[in-house]
Amino acid sequence: MRDKAWGHLDNVVLYVLPGIMLVFSAMGFLGYNHESSTEWYVGFTNIFCAAMVTILPLLKRKGWFIAPYWLIIPVSLNVMMYGISLFLGFYHYFWWWDEFTHMLSSMLVAILVFIALGAIECHTNHISLPKPAFLLATFLITVGIGNAWELFEGTVDFLVSSNHMQDIDAFDTLTDTTMDAVGALIVVAIGAVTLRKRRFYKVISGMWFEGRMAVMGKRWDRRCISPDDPEYEDICEEIGRLKD
Amino acid sequence: MKSSHVSVTALILSIILLVINLRQTETITVTSCAICIVLFGISSYRSIVREEHLRVWITVVTLISLVIGTLSPFLGLKGTVAAFLETLPNIFVAMLIIAEMIAFMGMRQDRMLFATFSVFFSMAIASFAAIVTYVIRIEEIRSEIIVNNDIIVQFGASFITSVVVIILVNRIMKKQNVRLITKEALLEGSL
């Protein structure tokens, strides 16, 4: 199954893209970056970006989440765009760059959250996410992830003892947070229209190896009920059957 | 006292707390109070119309955390300690949002999903509080009375508080052998 899904382009995404980020990281540590950010900050951020870029391809290689190219490549490029533009000083040259990248990233994160929640809804019987709850959760989780990103930036800044984040005015974090919410809202609005078409659930289901995701869903269902429940044994049998 | 009365009382109390916080320009607690007004408003309305009401303890714990958040400036607390107390309501408001989603939208969750949603929702509330700060206290930001570090400390405090509270809540739920949180359990059941 894995061989069928794994193509040459996946090798590029898994090895070449993180490689590029590591090169930028090394150049950052060596001080070739734009002087608007410190060497350590750029270096560590690019290492983090390199690690982030490998997540989706690794999940695909393991067969746990078969993300299509239309999702993997924009997500990877978006993560790379952050690290590289920090290196080149785009945030210094263009006032709108920061806001633009935050909105774009937020939209991509919202798509990932949307798909993840859709998968839970598709493959479990005991967990239920009705449409309004589904959309509200997508919006709030995406804004929450945006908050986590700001926290990550602040923590890295604190750890490498740089003053990049600490002493600047608060507009930076506040506009970033606002743009995160705007990006999430756009995707939720598109999602609300998409959810009217049931076919979207089929698209979500097709992203996973059906068997594996079905087993995962059944295991989740099993965790939701007591071992004394008569349904428990049935679910165990079904998991065994699906595994075979 | 009926639970529907608790919802209405909570609604009135949240409005009072909102006014106090607005006078103090405590934007973090203002955000939590504003969300609570909407949530308690919905549960009061539904309670009166359909006799549906959330479990009283969720409402009471959220209100206590709001009172603590409101009182912290009066106690003269500043810096990190104040940030922890002011962001304490975030996680309880997040749990209240999930409770309302379960009770009134028909969502069903297990413990793990409940914990994950709670932490992310709490962080989202911290972000909304930051946006409210942006709108209400823009002059203080311009004159650099509020700097970036203050916002980051609040985000961090909110995250740490949320994780600690959710670990404790998860332990309690595990002890009570709660596996699935459903509408029935929240409205009338044993939770």
Describe the structure.
Chain A contains eleven helices and no strands. Chain A has 244 residues and is an all-alpha fold. Chain B is mostly helical and 191 residues long. Chain B has one domain (3-187). Chain B has eight helices and two strands. Chain B has helices at 3-23, 27-50, 56-71, 79-105, 111-136, 138-142, 148-175, 183-187, and strands at residues 109-110, 180-181. In chain B, helix 1 (3-23) runs antiparallel to helix 2 and helix 5 runs antiparallel to helix 7. The interface between A and B is large, with 43 and 41 residues.
What is the gist of this entry?
Chain A is mainly α. Helices cover 78% and strands 0% of the residues of chain A. Chain A folds into 2 domains: 1-93, no CATH class; 95-208, no CATH class.
Structural class determined from secondary elements of chain A: mainly alpha
Residues in helix, % of chain A: over 70%
Number of domains of chain A: 2
Would you report the number of β strands of chain B?
2
Strand order of the largest sheet of chain B: 1-2
Judged by helices, strands and strand pairing, the structural class of chain B is mainly alpha
Biggest interface, chains and residues, is: A-B, 43 and 41 residues
User: What do the pLDDT scores of chain A average to?
Assistant: 85
User: Unreliable segments of chain A (pLDDT under 50, ≥5 consecutive)?
Assistant: none
Instruction: Identify the quaternary structure here.
Output: heterodimer
Rg calc of chain B: 17 Å
Global morphology of chain B: globular
**What number of domains of chain B?**
1
Q: Helices, strands, pairings?
A:
The complex is a heterodimer of chains A (244) and B (191).
Chain A: H1 2-5, H2 8-29, H3 39-62, H4 69-88, H5 90-93, H6 97-123, H7 131-159, H8 171-194, H9 199-206, H10 210-224, H11 230-243
Chain B: H1 3-23, H2 27-50, H3 56-71, H4 79-105, E1 109-110, H5 111-136, H6 138-142, H7 148-175, E2 180-181, H8 183-187
Antiparallel strand pairs in B: 1-2
